[in-house]
Every structure is written in structure tokens, then in C-alpha cells.
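Batch job 17 of 40 flagged for manual review because the log was empty.
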Amino acid sequence: MKLTARAKEEPEVNMTSLIDVVLLLLIFFMVSTSFVKQSQISISLPQADSSAIVDEVPQQLDIMITEQGTFLVNGRELVNNRPETIRNALQKVSGGNTKLPLTISADANARHQFVVTAMDVAGKLGFVKISIATVNDPADQ
């Protein structure tokens, strides 16, 4: 048997598949890259003056209602429980600043109407930070 040597073929690189891979990578990087230019806002922050340190407790208004319906504004008893009296007392104590927090606390046996009256007067004056304080009865624990 006679074996003849074949003619050696020159190896070639198929460029079609290489170009496909490069184009796919290019598309992937283009899609995954964000081109959003983030806007910047210039903010000038206030500087603190270290020489003027003041420890000031924020002012708060308190309305206390007793079982008999007596109103106390910041610990001072009012003459009567009419809405006009409550309004005048709140205006005087707050100095017209309706942004102050207002706490309404009432005795457990006080009529609900007194609490509603206090809330109504405070709301009409423009107070928006109104909270109702509750106290747990020690006998219940």
C-alpha cells in the first residue's frame, strides 16, 4: 500500500465569529453604561459661631384640665372655662407663635367636651403640633 503525503493546508482563522463576539460585547457595554449626567446643586450651609453657645430649652405650651373642668395653661389657673378665656390665655402665653408644640392633658374623670373645647380653640388659633398626654394609672399595673 502506497501512502502519499497530502498537501498541507494553510491554517486560517475564521474572523466572522470573532467579529460577532466583539460586536456583542460592544452592544453589552453600550447598554449597561449609563450616560446620565447628574446635576449638582450648590448649597451654602450656615456656619456655627462657637462663641455664642446657648442651651435653650424649646418652649412648650401645656393645657391641663381638672375633673371639675378647671383649665390650667402652663400651670396658671384660668378664671373660667369659656373658649374666649382659653383663647386669650393661649395667645398671651405663646406670644402669637403658633408653631410651638401644645400638649393637652386631662383628668380621667374630666368631661370629654373640655378636651374637645381645648383642641378646637387651639386649632382655630392655628396650632398644628397638638398632642394629648396620657398617664397610666399605678393601680392598673
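Reviewer: the log was empty due to a logging misconfiguration, but the result itself is present. Residues 61-135 form a domain with the Nucleotidyltransferase; domain 5 fold (CATH 3.30.420.270). Unflagging and moving on to job 18.
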